[in-house]
Amino acid sequence: MSQLRLNPLTGRWVTIVAERAMRPTDFAPRSHQVEADPSRPCPFCPGNEDQSMPATLQATSDDGSWRMRIVPNLYPAFDGEEPFAVHHHGPVHVEAEASGLHEVFVLAAEHHVGLKDISNQDAGSMMRLLKERLVQHSDTPNVRYTQAIINYGREAGASLAHPHGQLLGLPFVPGEILEEQRAFSRFEGGCILCATVETELVDGERVVLVNDDVLVVAPYWSGSPYELLIIPRSHDLHLTDSDEATLTAVGIAIRDSLMALEEVIGDVAYNLVFHTAPHSYRGAFHWHVHLFPKLVTQAGFEMGTGVLINIVPPEQAAAQLRNVSVRA
Question: Which superfamily does 3-327 belong to?
Fold first, then answer.
């Protein structure tokens, strides 16, 4: 029987329809890597640093070579120092300057190393660099929120194969974050995600990974197959509020989740999305990470109604991924 499940972070309904699922092994893995024009050098590989802007931040090895680096995007979606100002051109046409920051986070020096392959040390370095750069973004007057994302695979929106993410410093707080803020504020049981951690640990069905610092769960309200939610167990509004142990644990949990997904599904494209409280926000929030494997395409019903249909119940997804993680 189909179920409607409410996502308490957004107030949106998702539909669980197990009867429509194919076997998990029937999900098609990615058929090819995203590759740039072979006649042009990869701008993110060592030796090609002149193909990108000077780094704003980087992690180096003992020999002085860089392991990870953050550089300005050559084709920024948000750029400039103008304050956010809304302009009305008639009754329905409204616009504003897309000022802000847009950077590329090169996650490894090696061209074909993915997040699932990084060491514990590099998982911690990734999160520390992210924290440091978010602190710097918060000191930028016209940046109200920074969206950190990692797109892997062409199906997920990646334009280059070299592992990288993006940091977008926005002059406004996006709607998805505003919805989550409202959800945290109206939840009467304390914090939604702290309550989620407690509930899922008692139930256990949807837990994928857990330790003293982080919980990875296939959320009860999953709107897509094998969707995962990575929750730091310490209650911090901003990613930048978390200590090194928490950040490293989250980085390792991301790596281990991707390893488990590859074991179960194969080399699948995915979107990794960091949700943290807006820079100056001091209300109710709990930062977290969403992991969305790209296994299905939204069709007319989903696009027309905003109601997602998930053909793999999260309990089933978690059981498969948990069995892999136990063996790892």
Answer: HIT-like (3.30.428.10)
